[in-house]
Amino acid sequence: MSVPQRNANLESNGIVTYVAGWTLGGGTSVNNMVFNRGSPYDYDGWANITNDDSWKYSNMLEYLKKSENYQGNFPSDQHGYDGPIPVSQPRYAPGLENWLEAGRSLGHAITTPNGPQKMGFMPREFSKRFGRRVSAYAGYIRPFLRTRRNLRVIAKSEVRRILFEGNRAVGVRYITNTTEGGQVSNIAKARKEIIISAGVIESPLLLMRSGVGPREVLNEAQIPIVKELPVGKGIHDHVVLGLTFVINNKSLVFDPDRDLNPETLRIYNAFGDGPYSTSGGYVGQAMLASTVAQNEGNPAWADYMLYPIQSASAPAIFPPAEGIAMADWETPVFCGVAAVRPKSRGTLTLNATNVDGDPVIDFNFLSHPQDIQVLLEGIQTALKIYEETPAYKRLEARLAPIEMPACDNLEYRSEEFWRCFIRQRGNSFLHAVGTCRMGRGQSDPDAVVDSRFRVIGIDGLRVADASIIPNVVNANTHAPLYGIAEKASDIILRDWEDRPGGSSSPSTFKKTHRRRTWA
Ligand SMILES: Cc1cc2nc3c(=O)[nH]c(=O)nc-3n(C[C@H](O)[C@H](O)[C@H](O)COP(=O)(O)OP(=O)(O)OC[C@H]3O[C@@H](n4cnc5c(N)ncnc54)[C@H](O)[C@@H]3O)c2cc1C
């Protein structure tokens, strides 16, 4: 949980709950599987920040393609076809045609989310095969568990500290939970190097707990300093909020109570199709540029995303649909509005009095006024879509009344009302990045890793996960992370091949020590 935000989620006292997939496959085992590479401009921005052209989209494309087994509706040479992660567009997509028609009538292109992302309205693609999730674990690890002698998974375990000899990382201390409810402490020594991929929250915590972080944080927590680096500084995320509309056609939404039954289960098992194959009614999206992007000279680099949710029940963080006055034939639908190139930056630090406890996270959401402006324009576009386009007029779409006591003193639906609403309801999109920011190396005061994933000033230690992303992509994060992971593995192999007398031959860690701590 975050510290109370001054400008976001005020409806819930500003507390933002950030969840992650604490399991094999991480977030890809629990997420909504929405597959979006982000804009080519995002990657070009990273190349600029790192001064390393290998991060440009044109150079990252080989890695994005390598991870992909594209089965969607926009085949082209921009996609990969024999990677481990299937990418598909479900046939079951209630309401998608209305969404695309609305976009067309507003003069936007109907386009592809990934090949590469362009501005406009588009269906959503997902990391699914046959309507089923394929996680990082299912795609990259499980198939090789029995055949790769340099791969070993130690489940139910958690790395607690990175061990150093001078400025060289030499191993990790980890605990394994036993079936009897106890814990065993072990040390694993690295033969070559250590790669941390514990995610945007845990990777920086692991570094700080081990002595790599900001001087003031380590001093306060009385942790001996191995290397002073700006770990945890720069955390940021997309900010999302939901609008609820009412339409007159229940067949255009996924209703679990109505749609999940033995017959639809049979269809799912036989064809991977039907209501069981949906990710909660997510069917499409629009990638659009606000006046902020346009005034900055980036009219083709979307800074807000809209996405219809064709579901009878509200997804998490959206206000509940119960209590909305509706006729029998009507149903709620939802529209997500997200600021996807946020400028606000926050911090993640250790709790100095309990370094192994929960971190102190201040996303500092919506502290930059332009983030609020972008959301405001996103809301205005959503209202136009649902209230003014023929596609939704036919459905008699209307905005469900908004109960927001904190904004009651403002004229309903005025600009000031929406600004208040944004602060009350803006929340994390669960796409946080930036806690072990990648940069130019030693000379970059904001950088924790260099553009080859190496922790600056430390030998034998890299970080490869969402924490290294300096500026979040303008869309969901797991697709770019597959590309980043492919790039990391390529760089690491090459670095070892290039060493004098070196080889990239398989090598696992050496387990050196076993100590029962408590049972
Ligand atoms: C509910 C939810 C919905 C989402 N929906 C989408 C979506 O639809 N589309 C999309 O693109 N993105 C989505 N995301 C975001 C996306 O899943 C994440 O950005 C992505 O998974 C981050 O990858 P990562 O490798 O950086 O970290 P993670 O996926 O968090 O992986 C970190 C791994 O490290 C392990 N770990 C952590 N600490 C330790 C430790 N100390 N020792 C050992 N292991 C450790 C964890 O168990 C986990 O397996 C969603 C996220 C969530 C939580």
UniProtKB/TrEMBL annotation:
UniProt key word Flavoprotein: yes
SUPFAM superfamilies assigned: FAD-linked reductases, C-terminal domain (SSF54373), FAD/NAD(P)-binding domain (SSF51905)
Domain of life: Eukaryota
Glucose-methanol-choline oxidoreductase C-terminal domain ranges (all copies): 342-485
Segments of this protein annotated with the region Disordered: 497-519
Cofactor: FAD
One example GO MF annotation: oxidoreductase activity, acting on CH-OH group of donors
UniProt family annotation: Belongs to the GMC oxidoreductase family.
Source organism (scientific name): Orchesella cincta
Binding residues annotated for FAD, in chain numbering: N31, N32, M33, V34, V159
Glucose-methanol-choline oxidoreductase N-terminal domain: residues covered: 13-240
Bias kind Basic residues: ranges: 510-519
Name the UniProt record assigns to this protein: Glucose dehydrogenase [FAD, quinone]
Keywords: FAD, Flavoprotein
Pfam family, one: GMC_oxred_N
PANTHER family recorded: CHOLINE DEHYDROGENASE, MITOCHONDRIAL, GLUCOSE-METHANOL-CHOLINE GMC OXIDOREDUCTASE
